[in-house]
């Protein structure tokens, strides 16, 4: 399939996945954030006006996920085009590619550095914590791309070679997980609320990448049938 059609399908899939995930967070995650903000305000010595109001934060959720969906959709479409000989235009392979990409750039980093609600973490370490999270994404993505490149070069070598590549990738992730520093901030907030927020954040990413892969698979098959 031409790159233009694949990218078009992937971008539409990204918008669809963004809409589904925004709806999920709006109804389930945002109430937890509101609760965390209230707890933080009650525990503070004096109440300060937030730099960004909650309505603007919720609007930013929508805009942020639209851009998020378009960005990862574009990368997914580009990867599908680059791996075209292996994928053979099959919908299942497109879906699995999205799952692998989502695991690398979202789920694995969240396992190492779970998301926290407002009020958890020291303001002085925000920059450092962001650097750690971005490093986890970058290292995981490099490993995934290397594994895909090796699989593309050796894709005719059979299942044993594919299994060896998968094992090497898994070992790489174990090393990265162990080598990356721990989050430096202790969690002092309500443990149940923090766990709930982290679970919802992780579930939101699972939902996003599942929706992205499913929609991309369906749209790519539809466009391919029209060719």
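Sequence proposed for the structure above (227 residues):
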């Amino acid at each position: 399939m031409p790159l233009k059609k694949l990218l078009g399908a992937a971008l539409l899939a990204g918008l669809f996945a963004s809409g589904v995930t925004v709806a999920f967070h709006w109804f389930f995650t945002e109430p937890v954030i509101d609760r965390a903000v209230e707890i933080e305000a009650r525990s503070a010595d004096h109440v300060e006006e937030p730099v960004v109001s909650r309505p603007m934060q919720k609007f930013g959720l929508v805009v942020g996920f639209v851009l998020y969906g378009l960005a990862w959709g574009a990368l997914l479409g580009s990867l599908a085009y680059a791996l075209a000989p292996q994928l053979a235009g099959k919908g299942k392979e497109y879906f699995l590619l999205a799952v692998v990409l989502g695991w690398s750039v979202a789920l694995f980093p969240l396992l190492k550095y779970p998301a926290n609600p407002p009020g958890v973490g020291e303001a002085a370490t925000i920059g450092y914590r962001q650097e750690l999270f971005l490093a986890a994404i970058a290292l995981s993505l490099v490993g995934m791309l290397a594994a895909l490149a090796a699989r593309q070069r050796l894709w005719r070598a059979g299942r044993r070679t594919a299994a060896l590549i998968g094992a090497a990738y898994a070992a790489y992730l174990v090393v990265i997980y162990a080598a990356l520093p721990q989050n430096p901030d202790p969690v002092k907030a309500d443990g149940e609320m923090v766990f709930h927020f982290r679970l919802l954040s992780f579930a939101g990413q699972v939902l996003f990448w599942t929706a992205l892969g499913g929609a991309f698979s369906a749209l790519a098959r539809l466009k391919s049938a029209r060719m």
